[in-house]
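User: Ubiquitin-like protease family profile domain-containing protein, Favolaschia claudopus:
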Amino acid sequence: MARIKRSVRAHQAASSSGFGSHFTSPVKSNDARKKRKVTDLGAAQRHARVSDKLDALLRGETPSRPPAGAPGPIPDASTSPDVQMDPWMDVDPPDQPPSTPSRPPPPSVPPRTRLSITDAAHARLNDSWNRLLPLLEVPWSQYYERTHGRQRDPIPSALVYQCTTSCNGPTTVHNIKCLYSTFIQYVSVTTCPCKPVAVLLVEHGVFPASPTRPKTGVSYDLLDFYRALFERSCDAVTALAAALHTVYERRGFKVMTTGSQTEEQSVDPFRRLLIQAVQWSGNLRVRIQRRVEAALMRAELSIRQQEAQRNLTSTAGGGSVSASVPASAGASALNPLPVSTSSASTSTSTSTSASTPAFPPNTSTSLPQPTPQASASASASNRAHRTLIQRCPACFNLTRWGRPLSEGGDCQFGADGCYSYVHVKNAGDGPISYDADRFLPKATVDAVKRRLANARKSPIANPKRSVPQEVIDLCEESWEAANEKKKKSKADRYDASGVFVMTCRHGQPIVLANIDTPGEQQCYIIAMLEEVLRMLPETATIWQAYDVACITDHSLNLYPIVSPSVRSRVAFVLNGMHAYGHQWACQLVYSPRFRVGMGLSDHEGVERFWSRIRKLIPLTRTQWSSRRIWMLDQYADFVANEGLAGLGGWIHRQQQKNLTSKYRAASKVVDECQVTDTELRTQWAAQKVAQTSIRAHAPARLRRELDKVLSLQTQIDAVEKAIEDTKTTLKGTGASAGSLKILHGLEVTHERLSEEAEALYGSLNIHESFPELRSFPLEFAQTLLLLRDLKINIRKRAIGSFMEWETLDRAVSGRREALGTKLHQVTRKAITKRQPALLKAINKFNAGCATLEKLSPPNSSIPIPSPLSTQLNGLRNDPTLHEDVWITPSEGPIPRWLNDEDVRDGIRSLHVLDRCAEEVIRLNLERDNMRRWLTEEKDIIRRGIELVDNSSDSWLSFFLLQRQSELSDLDHQWTPFLRPQDINNRVITSSTASVRASVASARGVTPVTPFVSASVAPSIAPHVDQRSNHVSLPVASDPSDPFISISTPPLPQLPHVSTPPLQRIARVSVLVDEDELLEDVDFPVQGGDGGPDPDTGDTSDDEEVEIIEQIFDNSDDEAEVETSVVETSPDILDVQWEFKIPDRIDTNFATDLDARNHTLRFIATPGDFIHYVVRPGRRPLQITVGDLYPFTITTGRLTGFGLNGAARSLLNIFCAPHSPVQASANQCAVLSTYDLGRVHFKGSDPDMWRHISPTEYWNKPLWLIPIHRPRQEHWVLCVVVIPTRELLFFDSLASRGGWRQDLRDVMLLIARLVVLANRNKHQLHISTEDPDEKWSARPLFKVGEPRQHNDYDCGVWVLSMMAAFMRGNQDIQMANVDVPWVRHVLRKHIETLPIS
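Assistant: Predicted structure for Ubiquitin-like protease family profile domain-containing protein:
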């Protein structure tokens, strides 16, 4: 039964009065099928034919048919941007005859959709361009050669081609708009079928926007300008199109649209045209560049074959056998190889039809890729593939390969992925006929991915582990890159997650890959390594830097992913910046600072590459996938070319700014430490063994429980802060008694929660997990483990802040590439938000260190952890941040690498010296590679010019001459930086032996400082020079050793090799007077300290750095503890170890004190009576019976309270009104021995001011600071002389050890006290940062001549020296036999003090 259609009004409610509810019929969308334009098959061809006939009749000509077999015009692509055809129109395929009648499709064939029609149209357009580009190569090249170095004239308004082949084809007239930068030139082009109009346009400097029937062309000048703009500011087609439209309108060139009955002004007429012109003119450039590369490969092959022939001839004549290159090997290595389809084409491009003509001879669509045969030939020739040499000659132009990994290997790479370069799936794809040079094919990556999956099913038995599994697990949890299953982007929205890149140590991009997996899987790094190894000799060794190198190296050890031969030649290391995010045990093995042979490279060239191309992120997100690959590849090529030009400058900066400065600073520290290199290396080996052991890490169960307790404690602290804020607010507003009562209840609850949290922590049964801690008090063990986990938490937070800091640093250093207001604000808010929590955790850790020192039992074998800086910059440069708290007691005394600051600083500086020595060898090796490459490349280009001049490709000689000119300029830029230099920047002319000898001269020893570990190369094992306390490294006896010699053969000098004058290529030198550059510029020429930048108007670098530093240096207002952030430069203090005999020596201190004692009444202290010392403005100092006892026995060690009380009491009697030394004593401020500890453990400002302000130190020229070294149980003294900025330090044992750390703490104490005095309105004008106001330090003893001959009299000596300074002297006359009597005098003096 048919369904009755009811009206919509039937659903309305009935109305009892009036006209009822108003009803409006719903608006329906029009049926597009009823109004769609119907076009029969072949209409476009018939329309074009009729238009040509009409044009011929208007000119008075008779249309003629072309003879059979005559070449016709290129088939119409019917999708030209100039045709303005509706994309929904049905179009007949080009291979279908025009006479085919229009009929509906068979029922079995589904109707074509819009997408399929668009793909077919794009494919036809792509085919048309591919057939046209080979015809444009010669005219393009000839036009550039004809106009090189000259002004280009616009195209004539009329072009008429006179046929020379008598093709008898129809003559056609095309009216074309030619776009120039400031005007539009209308051109009438008359030509015949044997001369396509596109070729005629290219001959006159205009590139067509369509391959078949162009209506618009773009001038070469405009395209060249856009290319340069693209290289500097990335893709700007839309901006250029809009700018052209605006300029044309202002100059009277109105662009109208003729698609309707009335003409309307066009909105965006040029964007699609420019996209086509830019894309395909770029493809034409790439084709010509590859033709040039093929010619150079043939030239290099010819030279290699001649060398091989000469070697064979000399061998046959009885000469010596030398290395030769077989002709067949050279041919397979240098000839263009079969095309390797990249991921950009295999995964996205539509294949062309079989009828598409092939490219002309000697061309290829991509850079030659290595095949197994090519790899074998590369091994035979012992040279890297030309592809790699061109990308970085400093790295790959070696002549001898196989350098051991322990010496740095042959090549060093960095790699990482970036997940900002996602690609929207809906953006689609289309063919552009471009095969990327640097991108790995998708098939290659997929094959490695499958091999990885299969290898993980069969692990290797008894694999080698570099670090414990627990460390690997922690690193894997910390890094997202280690989680291959973590989705970095939405799979339903994006079909590409990012880009992976490998760079050399100079930052040159070598290989890229498109990431199409959810996470950063290991297949990318392994595929790139294998790709590079295929282009290197079989003996090549590689160091690979990666942010999760420990995980990748662990996987290669566990599973048979690569062959054993490859595995033995590849080693992994962490990137410099990423190393700080790994566990300390992992850093000990994988950090580039500790790996022998790594030099000074940070291997962060990958991050610099991402920074260079970050402007492509929004542009490539919504492009075609193939065009995205094209843009990334093109820009990577530009970055590589610019980096190649600056390679000489990179070498120079590395030598001058990095190598020399670090070497000198490290040499100074090692000299000051006075520890032999052998001892430092022994301690370093012991440290690695201890800190990479499994026992050095807490069990996973205990670690999780401690994390939970710490998390709970953090939440309790937050609640406490909220309660305090609420309490303050309620009291200020006069809250009711009920509200205050409720608030008091919350406080009680909070206290109970805090007590329960402490009880929970105490119930973790730490002694079962750590039986070696049973001998320690429970409170000490709990505090120790709490500090360990707290430091791990601080390290994680600090590293996060470092990453955010790097983001802001980019905004400071790259002023012309701003970070962006929104991102800058977000980053700044994030830093501000996290800073209070980080500072609170650091203050809690520092307070815990002080508590742990108090809880530490005597002769404890567990060292107290060093406190952390509360300034982010100081924290970033603090190496102790990355060291875990030591939780295992040592057998016997505490190792020196744990407890001795001199040894710790010496180990770090020795690593720097080793890296500097390795770096100077590698830099000279790279200089040699670059010099050789310049010479070889000049010969190859000359041979290439000779070969093409005698062939059909003679038009390539222009580009070869251009390459020769560029190489000459490069030679001129590089020459000043390619002379081999030693570590002191002196030019050398011999082998590395000279380099090594020169290293020693900088430190005043002969012959050298340590270069490599003695365990690395037994043949060159170092021996210890006992007189200089340094290691000397014997010079290799074989000067031809490729790893020792800098040049083979050595080059005495580096002459500037200039090519003959280039007669066949024009060059114009534009001279600009320096005064022109400064005309009307209102800023200091000699580089002032401030002022706006002349180019951008931004603030100066110093101002921007100051703004950034304020973000980190200012403590948050809500922080509970206020601590002044002060830092002192290590160069501000000059330590002079020459002992000067003092002018004034106190000879009567003990005698005078003893005489005074006899005039007073002694007060016995039976029981618990305590003597006290009066201090103005503060409560008295107490000297208990326990503090007095060490004075009563000859072997007693003075306590802190006893020494501080005795010193203050002596000051009181010397400052008395009738004292003969009153004037001298009033000049002294006696600080407590605990004041230096407050600085060392980052005590709060209020606490420091409360303890030190009563001394009125700002009015005293002498500050007496007794220092206690708890580990050695030893007392020393430091005297600060304010007027002369001098530190005088005294040690009764006459040792240099320990003073570096003490003097650093004293300088920090001075800086803190200056800040506190000025803040509290006591003017104290002292600088500890100005390099022009340096401080000096000298000893009050002669090193090696101790005054104390036991281990318990140091406190008495310090008290006596303090008394000497209070009495106006600089030394005291006292012998060892006098010390017992002095003890007795001091005890009697204390007994004269009042008791309580």
